[in-house]
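Appendix B. Extra example for self-study. Work through it before the problem class; the solution is given directly after the inputs so you can check yourself.
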Amino acid sequence: MLYAVFMCAVLIVLAAMWRGSRASLPLFLATLAAVAGYLVSDMTTPLNLSF
Amino acid sequence: MARLYRLAATANAWVLILVLIAAFAVQLLTGEPPCPLCTLQRIGLMLCALGPIYLLIGQRNGDVTARTIATAAGISILAGLVGAAASARQVLLHILPNDPGYGAPVLGLHLYTWCLIAFLAHIAANAIMLIGTVWFNDGLIERWRPVAAATATALAVVVVANIGSVIAEAGFHWLLPENPTGYLLFGR
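Solution. Structure tokens for the complete assembly:
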């Protein structure tokens, strides 16, 4: 589900870009930060969620 | 020059969309659902595609400016870095000798290795586009609205399809299983 949330965020960014919203770039940066943060937490927590 | 940038952005976006479609094809043909890191790399590809699409959307009204090119390239490079980090992590997880890797290799390399190559090539291409702005003069060109619409729609369709795939794979769990072998939503 978490990954579906990330993908929904990508869709929201795409929609914001299409509508010419000024929020599109902040939304993109927030989505990118969330994905990067999740990747870092996956690498640094003892629970290995990937292999 | 503006037309060249627009063509480059169109090609860039469609290459990424086709890579995502190819990943889906491998998933369905080999019966191997993507692992959590594989899904993160797909998300990275989606974020990378937003860069050239930003430029295509920006030129809908005929305007192509150095500012738009720079913003689009910045989006692409940042997303490429995050995607490359996820790919590199998966490559390093399987780098020890005699490690079979995850999933079947395609044309001799695993999909995460191909992804790393794709992300690095994407970053390099956008860096070249940034350097090219030194010769770029802002200007109006004929509109390409249908191409922008078609490209954005194709990405949206691919993202929606991936959302469905991830929900089917995870079932009602928050996270994907470590080693997915089926689709939990269907009880497999």
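Self-check: Helices of chain A lie at 2-18, 24-44. If your reasoning did not lead you there, revisit section 3.
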